Amino acid sequence: MRMDRMTTKAQEAVRDAVDVASRRGNPELYPEHLVRSILVQDGGLGGPVVQKAGANPDDLVRALDARIDTFPRVS
Fold first, then answer.
1. pTM of the full predicted structure?
2. Do the beta carbons of residue 42 and residue 31 sit within 8 Å?
3. Rg (Cα) of the chain, in Å, rounded?
4. Hey, is 62 helix, strand or coil?
5. N or C: which end of the chain has fewer CB within 10 A?
6. Exposure pattern of 13-25 as b/e (b: 16+ CB <10 Å)?
7. pLDDT of the chain along its 75 residues, tens only?
């Protein structure tokens, strides 16, 4: 994957997802990390798309956080 070919928002989301995984001690980057980053991104489309679909982005972020908490950790 070439980061330089991604949009600025996509690059930010991937960087944030990697940062979240690292802070939580997850040895791998999972799709949940990326989806969470897309949902909380300032000026991103993730939150509005979820709202348009009739769901609450904050509830989805909480559910993703709970799922991420179950992933393996390294210390």
1. 0.90
2. no
3. 13
4. helix
5. C
6. bbebbeebbeeee
7. 788 899 999 999 999 999 999 999 999 999 999 999 999 999 999 999 999 999 999 999 999 999 999 999 998
